[in-house]
Amino acid sequence: SFSRLVNNAMSRYGGIRKPIAKEGARVILMSLAIEALTDKLTVFRRHRNDFALVTKMLSCVDELKRVGVTSDELYSCSEKITDKTLKGKLSEIALIYSAYDSLVSESRFDDADVLSQMAKVLSETDIFKDKTIVLDGFSEFSFGEMKLIEVMMKQSESLYVTLCTDNLFDTDELSPFSSVNKTGRGLMKTANRLGAEIKEPVI
Fold first, then answer.
1. What is the pLDDT of residue 1?
2. pLDDT tens profile 193-203
3. Residue 14 CA to chain centroid, in angstroms?
4. Closest by alpha carbon to 102, among 41, 166, 21, 181?
5. Helix or strand run (H / E) with residue 2
6. d(CA 115, CA 95)
7. Alpha helices in 14-167 (DSSP H)
């Protein structure tokens, strides 16, 4: 698994000098971030003392980080929206997201950022050199996982990925394999960008 890979790599190469903020610490830091923004919130202001808002914002931040969207990118997106309600929600989520990240960075490292950070660390090593790597059992990859896969593509002798689909090149959004096919196309796009050779898929 990627988690096991990262844990082994951290013990060998380091790369994260601050304590990693796990669930309990993340809840406290998100609570503090929301509290600090009380005067700047409108949409979420009446819920600022609700624990549900803390958990929802953490889930939201996790999902945004999973797909590689930063708080600045989210705010820029909100600026382009004309619907006032949606615009307000997105801009305040971006504000909370930014405040949370700032608080975390003062003393800790967010658990949701570990994979992408370790990808940077491992890109400076030869951990995958001359290795044959097989990724099995995945239907999609997060932003951090894709960053690690990029390092694998650059360093390894070969990289094999198994995906459950009947036609990797099918672009039908209604296909039951649509998300898996999108993952496959994303992998091939990344390989092309890196100049990696792509073998004919085996079905």
1. 83
2. 999 999 988 87
3. 20
4. 21
5. helix 2-13
6. 24
7. 23-36, 51-66, 71-79, 84-107, 114-122, 143-155
Dig out the tokens for 39 from the structure: 């005067």
Phi-psi region of 152 (alpha: psi -120 to 50; beta: other; left: phi over 0): alpha
Paired residues of 160 in beta bridges: 134
C-alpha 172/C-alpha 151 separation (Å) is: 30
Q: Are the C-beta atoms of residues 41 and 53 closer than 8 Å to each other? A: no
**Element containing residue 135 per DSSP (H, E):** strand 132-135
Tokens 């929600």, residue located: 89
Amino acid residing at 190: T
Name the phi and psi angles at 161, rounded to 5.
Answer: -125, 125
Count of Cβ atoms closer than 10 Å to residue 44 Cβ: 20
**Cβ 110 vs Cβ 104: under 8 Å:** yes
Distance CA 148, CA 1 (A): 12
- Residue 115: predicted pLDDT: 95
Q: Strand 20-21 relative to strand 158-161: parallel, antiparallel, unpaired?
A: unpaired
pTM of the full structure: 0.89
Q: Say whether 16 sits in a helix, a strand or coil.
A: coil
At 19, the amino acid letter reads P
Place of tokens 């005067």: 39
* Separation between Cα atoms, residue 169 and residue 84, nearest integer Å: 39
Structure token pair of residue 166: 């009947």
- What's residue 202's pLDDT? 84
Rounded to 5 degrees, φ, ψ at 195 are 75, 20
